[in-house]
Amino acid sequence: MSPGDTLVEVRDLVKHFPISKGIIIKHKVGSVRAVDGVSFEVKAGETLGIVGETGCGKSTTARLITRLLEVTSGEVLFEGRDITKLKGPDLKAIRREMQMIFQDPYSSLNPRKTVGAIIADPFVIHGLETGPGERKKRVQELMDRVGLNPEHYNRYPHEFSGGQRQRIGVARALALKPKLIIADEPVSALDVSIQAQILNLLRELQREFGLTMIFIAHDLAVVRHMCDRVAVMYLGKVVEMAPSDALYSQPRHRYTGALLSAVPVADPELATRERHLLGGDVPSPANPPSGCRFHPRCSHAGPICSTQEPALTEMGQGTVAACHFPIADDEVGDLLPVARGRERL
Amino acid sequence: MSTEQPAGALLSVENLSVQFPTHDGVVHAVDGISYTVDRAASIGIVGESGSGKTVAALTLLGLTVTQGAIVTGQILFDGRDLLTISKAELRHIRGNEIAMIFQDPLSSLHPQFRVGAQIVEAMRIHRSITRAAARTRAIELLELVGIPDPRRRVDQYPHEFSGGMRQRAMIAMSLSNEPKLLIADEPTTALDVTVQAQILALLERLRHELGMAMIMITHDLGVVAQIADRINVMYAGRIVESAEARPLFSSPQHPYTWGLLRSIPTLDGPRGVELLPIPGRPPSMIRRPTGCFFHPRCAYALPSHSTIDPPLSDVGLEGGGDHRAACLLDAAQRQAAWAALKGGGTPEQARVAAGIEQDVVPVAEAEIVG
Questions:
Q1: pTM
Q2: CA 20 to 30 Å from B141, out of A148, A191, B60, B330?
Q3: Mean pLDDT of B277-291
């Protein structure tokens, strides 16, 4: 597979979690539509970012792609093959190709195993590197590569700081030389100075191993830094998808605009006191609003928005957005404090 | 000890230290910090995990002594020293004149009591007010903090509120006795960015409407840039830089502040620029480094910096107001180094620009592990 080919394609992915009532005889009374018809593709060697607020379905999407959850409907094509129905050895084989890095470096490492054993686990599971001393050697190489001292092979997770633990998670994910890494909020539990160390490490490794990455985060600045393209999710749907440069300089969906406008900017000169605040909270995914799911919180919603669901449409610069009243070019300066900063320069 | 405070000052913290004796040794959580909060002013305290920012705030309310802390120094609040007054007097101040809101609104609210009942309780502890009057006031407060349909919401339980609404309810509770000072400890860290923006705007509005002072504790430089008039940067239990918000961001003077500013990705600026993490990690608070506490992680440290402990002193910037930093570099060196860093330079280039000889102190290269 060469860069530019499609590595992963997701088609109409749907995941509904049933809500059931009753103690002995359970019956379904509804469903949480965590992911509700998501489609995108990831090209080999690129990083796709997925951003959105709590409950938008970004982590569920990641778990569906890695088959940690079963899809309700839709397809996940990995190198052109639908993997949603794979079983047994086929599934195990495909799992070698995709690995996850999790948010919480405290709960994602087994506290009773040594670091060496944690990083060697993928080899054990897949029966690789069986020669004497080979596993230890490979593990120590990996530890060295991610910036851990290989001599700490026999230490336990509690002996490491949060940033070091996240490095252990990265080493484990790299062990099998996967084609795809899915990083789910990999730095949100870390302090800013440590966060930068991990982000730099991920970028280095990506270049070195030609990794394809799906990077999930709620921090828009981090996603901009890491990703070539970004998908914005809201209530189980992708509402906008665009190359990073286009998304951050010319957002089209009203929700993307509101998100960018809400980010606090580390510059008091730009921290204007009157910003475009989004009112209310994200509605329940068990009972999403009709039409455009964002319409109850949208300042520009018209009558059509509550009745007709907008489709993802081309908006130029490689952007697709699902909005009846997309943000016009001349509105951006008013919306984003950062854009105002650019004008000032 | 005198209890004289400068005119206009609401809170003056003088040389406050908080130590926790443990089996491994004494943890120097806060080490001689001093700052002042004027009436109706808002200050930000920025620092990473373990920098002592939360311990310092809890100490203001007498909440660390109960944990076995040894507290020294002086905390003057409205003419009284909070470290010497009686427990009864402190109880009267806590939740009444000084209120605090915390990071996690779910664990700060009691799950078995209705939200309204918890606000009523907070009021009735401090003043004689009938239940009915307190309830009416609770509804007013919920309305003030922007909770829709407060008449219905007042009788709901915390689990029926969303994260943002719980934080609003906490704010309503903290405001119930019209405090003179509100301490907000990472109030928006657990919230989504759009809700965070709502809460910050709410705090800002309330501060102006009610004329209360605020201490905002956070690790997020974006949040303090929005809300604080003055910012203290804490590292290893000390204030390493203190300035008005604008000069702090436009001409920061401490290498740690530079590190914080250059390690966060921004929404503007070129996208390909490498982040410059601060190497290593914060020191042990039991066995602290000698000299400047930051020198093992500082790219600009000279050999003498491992023996001399810099005081927090005026940086001598023209028109920068009261701007202090605890750094051994001289003003010209700092100026040149930050100019280079701000223009996208690496620490090496900044060192050259500042005329600091290279490799005088090996920066903890071996320890570049988070």
A1: 0.88
A2: B60
A3: 88
